[in-house]
């Protein structure tokens, strides 16, 4: 009796141990599966986060193409200027932008009896309120001197075009709160002709009537006097755009006050043609006017470009713009601005 009882107890113990071992194996398998899933999820998130950023290589490609010797300074009225317009249109197509008007990104106007083009594309957001991004792609062409005679205009203003293209790249697979309009102006160097023409284009009134603000990028290829990851805004005393932007800015990005207020840069760039329409419009720049030696010189080429800084600014601009919506971003002009 005693012998059979011991054997029975032993069997029960074996069963308990076997059950425990089986359960433990199941728990370990589930843990390893969850750990693998967590790692996979983290990896996918990391890949997605990296993929949504604009690469330095992409920025290099765009600005190097626009500022190449083959573009011969992109002077308005030349074939190279039209080539630049077509290249920007190609980039807009790659970013799946819609046409602003008609059946083309190219928006024609007349210069000295010849048809020339601005370039315009639209990104539809969750609302009908728009943010605008612009720059000018023309420059001053060439001179007749021997040696390097091409004014490549890498900073002025291939960098501005590259920045707005970078923002379009950033939002290619996203749906922002604001809709977005991207405008590459022609003829800035001849008196802001392209921005004047497109600002008065009645076919775009539906956009302009809902345009909350326009960021006009003008010479953003170098480090500003405020350091890395920093820009300044012309005419900062005329609106609260910079204050509202900075409240939402990420990773230390900052729009600084205009350090050259006496130069009246606010009224001397393409943004002014939208100011006349009482649309909030400022130029954004990094140009350190106290040190700059390449303005309208043949050495304004890709060698002066700070690609790391441009990449940082473009991506941080994109991340900040993701946080903006028609409720938290409603800039207004002060009573100091002159609309005429």
**What is the CATH superfamily of the largest domain?**
Zn peptidases
The CATH architecture of the largest domain can be named as: 3-Layer(aba) Sandwich
H and E order? HHHEEEEHEHHEEHEHEH
| Count of individual beta strands | 9
Query: Roughly how much helix do the residues carry, as a percent range?
Result: 25-40%
Strand content: 15-25%
Q: Specify the overall morphology.
A: globular
Give the overall average pLDDT: 92
Biggest pleated sheet = 9 strands, mixed
Number of helices: 9
Distance between the termini: 113 Å
Describe, in plain words, how this protein is organized in 3D.
By secondary structure, the chain is α/β, with parallel strands linked by helices. It is built from nine helices and nine strands. Strands 1, 2, 3, 4, 5, 6, 7, 8 and 9 form a nine-stranded mixed sheet that branches. Helix 2 packs across helix 4 and helix 4 crosses helix 9 (307-323). Residues 118-316 form the Peptidase M28 domain. GO terms for molecular function: metalloexopeptidase activity. It comes from Chryseobacterium soldanellicola. Pfam families: Peptidase_M28.
